[in-house]
């Protein structure tokens, strides 16, 4: 079999490289191999990924889009074992202290990684911005406010509210490495978020999720950071001069503060007297007067938000 230079003079350099690789494989057809893949690292433009490589047996092509902590995006492509590809593609979350994976895909055909995980445009919020709306032309867009942290080992460190840029959602990343779990929260482009939806379960070692509501990333990847009321007040039907109490307790790990509010049947929110509160406001004690009938609400608040539970005190004659 002869191959002349004339036969390799094709228009596209990529095609030439492919022809060379195919000829090399034909000449050594007894040698098992993997697919021919595009290969590049830290490329900021899709057209700059012009490398090509022949993978060994047991490997396939992959492409990964990496979102830097600065908001810039780069891509890498190459060969990876089928086992590693299966693990990383199923989690779609890269392991790194600061960088995140916007996309991770594997494939097995020649040059199949040329156009997967193509670079997207990731916009970053302006520093120290707490605006909640943005105006584009005559259209006002609502901006998401998300909790933020970077590579925190204590989820309670993720407490700062961040105003996202237009076109962004809230995200949470949770990665367990050995005995330590790392958390990151913040804003992510909707384009990148499409890669994370439904990829890994909340119980997996790696999880990344996005959501589109203010502060919603405190409840992603199996996290429950809002305080949970474990003892709730319950409805009572009483007479005037009866002595009663309403109990309310939040889970201790939430580090929540308890407060009470009152609303009478006429709509007034003025606290009736007398009312006494136990330690940390966990219990409200009072002797019933006509002013005590109404809706009593216990509110548990921590740095991530509030949860409430209500009970009604009704007069016996109204039951």
UniProtKB/TrEMBL annotation:
Keywords: Disulfide bond, Signal. InterPro entries: Ig-like_dom, Ig-like_dom_sf, Ig-like_fold, LY6_UPA_recep-like, Snake_toxin-like_sf. It comes from the Eukaryota. Residues 1-32 form the signal peptide. Residues 227-314 form the Ig-like domain. This is Ig-like domain-containing protein.
């Amino acid at each position: 079999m002869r191959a002349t230079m004339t036969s390799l003079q094709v228009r596209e350099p990529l095609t030439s490289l492919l022809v060379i690789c195919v000829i090399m494989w034909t000449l050594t057809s007894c040698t098992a191999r993997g697919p021919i893949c595009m290969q590049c690292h830290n490329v900021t433009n899709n057209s700059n990924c012009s490398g090509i490589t022949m993978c060994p047996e047991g490997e396939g092509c992959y492409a990964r889009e990496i979102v830097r902590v600065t908001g810039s995006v780069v891509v890498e492509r190459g060969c990876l074992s089928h086992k590693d590809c299966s693990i990383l593609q199923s989690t779609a979350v890269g392991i790194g202290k600061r960088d995140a994976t916007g996309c991770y895909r594997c494939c097995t055909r020649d040059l199949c990684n040329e156009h997967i995980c193509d670079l997207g445009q990731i916009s970053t919020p302006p520093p120290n911005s707490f605006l909640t709306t943005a105006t584009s032309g005559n259209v006002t867009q609502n901006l998401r406010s998300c909790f933020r942290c970077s590579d925190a080992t204590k989820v309670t460190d993720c407490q700062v509210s961040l105003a996202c840029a237009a076109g962004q959602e809230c995200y949470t990343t949770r990665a367990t490495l050995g005995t330590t779990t790392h958390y990151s929260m913040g804003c992510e482009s909707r384009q990148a978020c499409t890669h994370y939806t439904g990829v890994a379960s909340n119980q997996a070692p790696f999880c990344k999720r996005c959501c589109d509501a203010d502060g919603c990333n405190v409840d992603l990847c199996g996290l429950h950071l809002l305080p949970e009321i474990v003892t709730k007040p319950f409805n009572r039907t009483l007479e005037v001069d009866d002595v009663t109490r309403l109990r309310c307790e939040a889970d201790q790990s939430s580090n929540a503060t308890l407060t009470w509010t009152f609303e009478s049947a006429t709509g007034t929110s003025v606290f009736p007297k007398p009312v006494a509160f136990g330690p940390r406001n966990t219990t409200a004690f009072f002797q019933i007067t006509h002013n005590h009938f109404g809706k009593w609400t216990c509110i548990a608040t921590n740095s991530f938000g509030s949860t409430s539970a209500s009970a009604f005190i009704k007069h016996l004659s109204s039951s």
